Amino acid sequence: MTAHQVENTPIPRLYDFLRTNEPDIIGEWSRQVRALSPARELSESAIIDHLPQILALIADVVESGRTGRQDSRADLPEKHAISRLRRGFDLDQIIVEYGLLHKTIFDLWESRAGSTMAVAELRNLDAAFFDAIEQATVRYSQAREKLLRALDRVFEQALAITDLDRFLQELLQLILEGTESADSCIIFLREGDWLHVRAAAGLEQELVGDYSVRIGESFAGQVAQQRRALALRHASEDPAIKNRVIRGSGMRALYGIPMLQQDDVMGVAHIGSRTAFEFSEEDKLLFRTVVRRATTGIERAQDFAAVERSEVAQRFLSAAALEFSKSLDFEGALAKVAHLAVPVIADWCVVDCREGDRIRRLVAAHSDPVKTSIARALEGRHATDPNGPKGVARVFRTAKTEWAPEITEAELAAGVGDAEQLEILRAMGLTSYIIVPVSRQDEVHCTITLVTAESRRRYSETDVRVAEQLADRASAALENQRLFAVAQYAVAARQQILAIVAHDLRNQLMVIGTGAALLTQTREPVQADSVKKTSERIVQTIGTMRQLVDDLLDTGAIEAGKLSFNPEPVAVAAILKAAYENHRAAAEEKGLELKVEPDRGNLRVQADSKRIMQVLSNLLGNAIKFTPYGGAIALRAGSEEAQVRFSVSDTGPGVSESDLATLFEPYRMVEKHARAGSGLGLYIARSIVGQHGGRIWASSEVGKGSTFYFTLPRVG
């Protein structure tokens, strides 16, 4: 447009110009605003924000001459200021935005309408801009000051935090005071896959500690899973809300944010309003900023609490170890430790022991004697099923720890036998449990169950490690008890063997001494037969003494783990033949029939032939000793999958069932059949067979004889 054309063109009304050229004004303004630091990464819609409404408001002011404060949309500059504060703009940058808008309007006016403008309209335009900047400045400053005051309070409290629950409650109160529409606030803290209500304000206090959701479920769970802020407009009616307290509260707006610490979700916080359907940007900003600042304090408090719990746990473990060390009565010490655990690391501590196929409850400890008596009565009516799919029964079967951070209704129902038991357990308010096995020589002897209830505490992985350390100490005490019993038995056994050896050696020496005296003191000519008989008796006695010494040496080697052992492939037929030849004469001398069933399968075993012959010599020797005149002894061997089974049967007096249980233990002899000997033969035989990778056992019926079996690894 030329200067002449501009001069002859009627001057437009400024308010019409603003409305007609709104797209161009906004387009040019947004291009210039994008150069500002906070706006460089924003979307176009985020940059424009409230500008169309603000520009329309300015046009109205220019037309009417009224200020924005008299217009129904007077809060637009305030909303824009809060929105910019949320996006990281400083106050001077907001003022620059208005300056750019003012300049853009004038530049466009000059290029399209010329340099002339009505003074009244110009005055109204400047007044509108001044009013908008004033409102933005005041509102920004108020919001900023309010936010800073809130942050200062949170920061001071976070630095001095000693009680997490008190800190959270004060934090919620601060949020409710600082936000205009919020009248409820809840903080969930995460434990594993669960979110547990740790603090609540504006709702029933019973919600605290009683309400938990899995991550991904319900509103709070979705916030944690999606790791972003979520909002609802009709919370009490929304299907995402599961809790009866919130659903019955008439809540409208609900706004939740994840509590993040180094990219980990440590909890969720949400505010609710019964009056507003949506929270203002200012309320959201304050809520997010306060919670973000408080998250560090919460983490710090949790760290302190974890350290304190660790110290308490270590003191308890030390006390438990001391209790175990004070007594060799394992079950008595374990019962005392169960009472020590309450309420330090549990509300309930239950110990169950195995007795054959039955599970016996040793102790159920609780600080309330009434509840303890209820537990005893419950156990009396509902004994633990040893074949149960979960709980104590499964720990006995698997020897593995079982841990439930959260005892759900479904889990509770699955672990009980009837409605009465379920109702009692519900009334106990069980929250979480850990069951650990106490083992001895790879076999679970008992289990320790730690349970939380009224404390509402949820067990964590750290608590599981503490429980397992307790089980380790109990296992060590159980092993000490076993070793003490073994030591006592060994002392008694050695006293017994010393008595046996002393008695037997004295008798044998007496035989040798008598024979030697007879040979040396006889002055008359001695007949050859008499000399021969005396000499044979001496030789036989020396052999018995040598066998006694060999047994003692082998026993010592077994206990030291140094028994010599050189296995190689050996024919079973050769073993049977050698054993038969070695004992045929002794059997015939006593009038016994010794039979051997020849191996027809060309079986071979991996064995030390001398040691296996020692086993068979012991079994055949015992059979010959105890089988009366006219009896029979049978030696057999046959294939049994990857093993070869040997057996020695006799028609002797047999062995009682009670004696069979201890027959292969050292220094044991069947009393009514006891004769000279160490009582070590079967013990040595068991050790030799075990070292070969086989097993040895016996079956017998009193009055009908016995059969001893042992197996060896088959070759080929």
SSE inventory with pairings:
Blueprint: H1 3-8, H2 14-20, H3 22-33, H4 44-48, H5 51-64, H6 76-86, H7 91-113, H8 119-159, H9 164-178, E1 184-191, E2 194-201, E3 212-214, H10 218-226, E4 230-232, H11 244-247, E5 253-261, E6 264-273, H12 281-326, H13 330-344, E7 348-355, E8 358-366, H14 369-381, H15 392-398, E9 402-404, H16 409-414, H17 419-428, E10 432-440, E11 443-452, H18 461-521, H19 528-559, E12 568-571, H20 572-589, E13 593-596, E14 604-607, H21 609-626, E15 632-640, E16 643-650, H22 657-660, H23 681-691, E17 696-700, E18 706-713
Parallel strand pairs: 13-15
Antiparallel strand pairs: 1-2, 1-6, 2-3, 4-5, 5-6, 7-8, 7-11, 9-10, 10-11, 12-14, 15-16, 16-18, 17-18
Helix pairs in contact: 2-5, 3-7, 5-8, 6-8, 7-8, 8-9, 8-12, 9-12, 12-13, 12-18, 18-19, 19-23, 20-21, 21-23
Please tell me about this protein's structure.
The protein is an alpha+beta fold. The strands form four sheets. Strands 3-2-1-6-5-4 form a six-stranded antiparallel beta sheet, with helices on both faces. Strands 8-7-11-10-9 form a five-stranded antiparallel beta sheet, with helices on both faces. Helix 6 (76-86) crosses helix 8, helix 18 (461-521) runs antiparallel to helix 19 and helix 20 (572-589) packs parallel to helix 21 (609-626). The radius of gyration is 47 Å and the shape is elongated. The termini are far apart. The model is unreliable at 1-6 and 671-676 (pLDDT under 50).
Strand order of the largest sheet: 3-2-1-6-5-4
The Cα radius of gyration reads 47 Å
Number of continuous helical runs: 23
Uncertain runs are 1-6, 671-676
Q: How would a textbook summarize the main sheet?
A: 6 strands, antiparallel
Q: Give me the secondary-structure category.
A: alpha+beta
Query: What is the overall shape?
Result: elongated
Q: Strand-residue fraction?
A: 15-25%
Number of strands: 18
The overall average pLDDT, rounded, is 81
N-to-C span: 112 Å
Fraction of residues in H or I helices: 40-55%
